[in-house]
Design a protein that fits this description.
Structural class: alpha/beta
Helix content: 40-55%
Distance between the termini: 10 Å
Strand content: 15-25%
């Protein structure tokens, strides 16, 4: 299915000062896409913390007034304040009112081994059925340079096409990270390590460039720039971001199986935690 410009955007804000950046980006995109903007704040509450709800709701409404008045551009804004678990209520609200694009602030959780702790943004990305934009940088105009991480799977192709459709005027780079795994048995057992690795690298790069050409052709956008670099995907992308400073990273939200999608520690979630730029997570489960 071809992605189109969103008609109803939701900003999930925690009303902290850092969240103003996500609000500014949400307002900019709402104007660019001529979309409605719903600003949502969830007052966190559970059985262990039922106290002070009325006061916290009042304070949230006051902060929401301040935030909406700070809009630098004109757009249609509606405010919603609800009570509950931030991730659960945000996702339910997206479904209930029919939003087709969600914006959050950056993830703030901690990484312990392979698990994320305390990151509402990561929990939202893991389960959202609509694209989720996590905003880290202060907006300085429209997105001009976008990088899409690709592994030539259907999910990564879907993510790339989603980024292309949403931001057609930006310069888009498809980035593929490869690793070499030479076969050291058979005739290679007695050959030079350098020669075996060089031959395997040549084979892998040739195959990657061929797949990249097919991907660009299928996207119907010959202006897409391409990069094929050696290394672990996360490390390669982090190094590329540090050197080239793109405005936005696009990634699919699951791997090659539904089980991988539900595993805490997916690549898209790690991007949220580690990259110093905005991240667009495109849901790719069929």
């Amino acid at each position: 299915m071809t992605m189109t410009a969103p008609r109803k955007i939701m900003l999930a804000t925690d009303l902290t000062p850092a969240g103003d950046r996500a609000f500014d980006r949400a307002v900019e995109l709402a104007q660019e896409w001529d979309a409605d903007l719903i600003v949502l704040h969830v007052v966190e509450s559970n059985a262990a913390r039922p106290w002070g709800i009325d006061r916290r709701m009042h304070n949230a409404e006051t902060e929401m007034d301040r935030l909406v008045r700070s809009a630098k551009q004109a757009c249609r804004i509606v405010r919603h304040t609800v009570i509950g678990d931030p991730a659960d209520r945000t996702l339910a609200h997206v479904r209930d009112i029919g939003c087709d694009f969600l914006i959050t602030g950056p993830a703030h959780g901690k990484i312990v081994g392979e698990r994320f702790l305390g990151s509402t943004a990561a929990r939202i990305v893991r389960r959202a059925a609509v694209p989720v934009l996590a905003v880290r940088r202060r907006p300085e105009g429209s997105y001009r340079s976008i990088v899409s991480a690709v592994d030539f799977s259907d999910p990564s192709r879907t993510a790339l096409l989603g980024g292309l459709a949403l931001f057609p005027s930006a310069r888009l780079t498809a980035l593929h990270a490869y690793r070499i795994e030479p076969n050291w048995s058979g005739r290679n057992a007695e050959r030079s390590i350098d020669i075996v690795e060089a031959e395997e690298r040549e084979r892998v790069v040739k195959e990657a460039k061929h797949n990249m050409a097919d991907l660009v052709a299928a996207a119907g956008a010959p202006a897409i720039e391409t990069e094929v670099l050696e290394g672990e995907p996360e490390a390669v992308l982090a190094d590329y971001v540090a050197k080239n400073w793109p405005d936005l990273i696009v990634a699919g939200t699951h791997g090659r199986s539904a089980i991988e999608h539900d595993t805490i520690g997916s690549v898209a979630e790690r991007f949220l935690m580690t990259l110093p730029c905005d991240v667009l997570a495109v849901p790719t489960r069929k």
